[in-house]
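subagent[fold] <- orchestrator: predict structure for attached chain, return tokens only, no commentary.
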Amino acid sequence: MATLMENEVFKAFATYAAIVTLKMMLMGPVTAYFRITRGSFSNEEDVARKTDEEKKKLLRAHPDVERAQRCHHNDLENIVPFFFIGLLYALSGPNLTTALIHFRVFTASRIFHSFAYILAFPQPSRGLSYGVGMLTTFSMAYNLLSTVFVL
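subagent[fold] -> orchestrator:
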């Protein structure tokens, strides 16, 4: 592990992987915030101490809660592949400047994507940020396979 932490590309990957992980982890509290402020719960035990009438009002879907959940789901679909591809890419010995561009662009695109999703920015802002992040991951995969392709 000490040797890996001497590798500047790996340290950069670890930094940006930690940033997007924290961003993804924040989606849970964001969803909870919307659940509480919008009075929208999905589980019976969440409203167990309420009256039957209150339960009917609280056990319902709310668009803001669903939006936060979809944003979190989208993070899972994009950040998990970034971890695997990014780790292998970092270990393949890329140029530090090129690696930093990949990691920074991906991280910025995911942060912007979350704001665009939660705050309902007009399209194509969310779609473009999604596409930029996805293309960045594909670019790392291409560079990785170009470097280490063995069959």
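orchestrator: received. Logging for downstream: Residues 97 and 117 are 30 Å apart (CA to CA). The radius of gyration is 20 Å.
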